[in-house]
Amino acid sequence: MKILGISVSARKFGNSDLLVKEALLGAKEAGAEVEFIRLTDYKILPCEGCINCVIKRSECIFRNKDDSMELYRKLTEFDGLILGSPTYILGTPGILKMWLDRGMAYMYGVGRPNSGKPAVAIGIAGVKGWEAFTLPQMAVFLLSLGYKIVDQFIAYAQGPGEVLFDNAIIRRAHKAGELVVSRKEANTDAGVCPSCKQNMFRFVGENTIECAICGSKGKIESRNGKTTINWFYIEHRWHDKEVTEHFEGKILPSVPRFMKNRHRIKELRKRYLDSI
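Now predict its structure.
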């Protein structure tokens, strides 16, 4: 078994690097071959929204201009993934989102070669309460590619390397590496979505909530003074079937419609070209 560790941090040997490497040590002791890379060592260009990868079911047309597709191909060589990221203004650094956007080809275009593989998300934040979107953003990245999240957690440390003073977190990272090898899921906190393990919900009806990350639905129930969530729909949007239906049922049909109306759109937009 081969496990890849990716740190999203621009700081070498910072807290993100160290926790990913600790998780890789756990995976290695569990019998896996491991490799570590840093996302910021690669060139990642933003997606231009051409959706050629979806229309033609192919790799990105800019695949030879940066390292995005090379990195996605690299993921297919491994049986599991450990992803570590710092927190920049409540969420992950922008480079992870740029790489995610370029991954549309691997969500649908060339298939989902990583579907079902185990993954771990390790977020690092300096101050509690200022990391609201870090794990959800990491989850979107992993789920969009088909990974199954077996563990995720936030560690708190500010100065580079200070996470090493937290023995409990070091042990947690080590255990996470073991879990990704065994494919066993860690125990999750109550009140999180059973599909994606996130806690970002919105109300969609009376006492009914929907997970903002994956679309799973549950009913809020109170009994004997205790509030619980009864989940009744967990076929979330990141399953292979739902991803295919999204692109084939909602995205691809827009192409002939646009082609039919493109000349009319060109005429209508002239006022904006000429006036401003």
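The beta strands are 2-7, 33-38, 80-86, 118-125, 148-156, 201-205, 208-211, 217-223, 226-233.
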